[in-house]
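user: can you give me the structure for this one chain? tokens are fine.
assistant: on it. calling the predictor now.
[tool input]
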Amino acid sequence: MLHLRPYAGEADLPAIWDLLLRCQAAGHVDMDVYSTKLRIYLHDPTFDTTRLTVLVEDEAGALVAFATLWRGTFLMLLVHPNRRGQLERQLFAWAEQAATAIASSRFWAPCRDDDPLGCALHERGGFVLEDEELRLGRALDEPMAEPEVPAGFTIRPLAGAREVQAWNDLYRKAFGPSHATLLSRHEAVMGDTDYDPALDLVAVDAEGHLAAMCYCAIPSVEVASAARKEGRTEPIAVSARYRGRGLGRAIVLRALHLLRERGMERAVLTTEVGNHIAHHLYASLGYRLLYTARWYARHL
């Protein structure tokens, strides 16, 4: 018999990380679900883990599935590869009940387009495909140019807490209001154990105003497992007034060099399907399509 319970604190993390690594190795979990993000969510004091997380354990007490419904809108699932097709329906029902209890009208769940079982389970579970995003990767053992910073600009690390508001403002102006803005709480990111200030890059103009950003992250759980020497280069944004000057290219190249210096083998990022300007930039920097993430919505 399976046992369901909420997240009980840091003592649960080793089992969650083991399950996450198993799912990543099997290739059915979206790269938007990774250890750093999960830890930030679970440690957020405003997040109701009692109502919006669930761990599923088997008769021996082993963790076979995990789900969190971040703020009632973003469902992240981990299901043991040997249990797929059995537990998703149960977790969908749990998520619907949890979302309804906090008066959410819908929630989203990502699924890889190269995971036909996962897509079929979402569609049979009453989800509707509403959006898609591209997941891109760039091998770091391939040649890369040196960054050429446009005249009048400087690329440096974010200046700590005093620049967080400017960072958040640039993020909001670049990406606009959407479910993704829930992921932009940079203060929480900076407080996480994986945060490396040297990888939190910004470009500033001659007056010190933020002109561009490229946040780099190295998830320590995945890297420590030796399964994934992979860093992330996102979000990337350039202020509208400074676009077309080569700032985006320069700051991403700086980020790629830093990740390679730290032993990473690949850099990954997400971009919207219709953002053709970004596609051109990323292709010119050596990023290639890994898969398409399908965003399924469950309307309540």
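assistant: here you go. The CA atoms of residues 140 and 296 lie 32 Å apart. The first strand starts at residue 3 and ends at 5.
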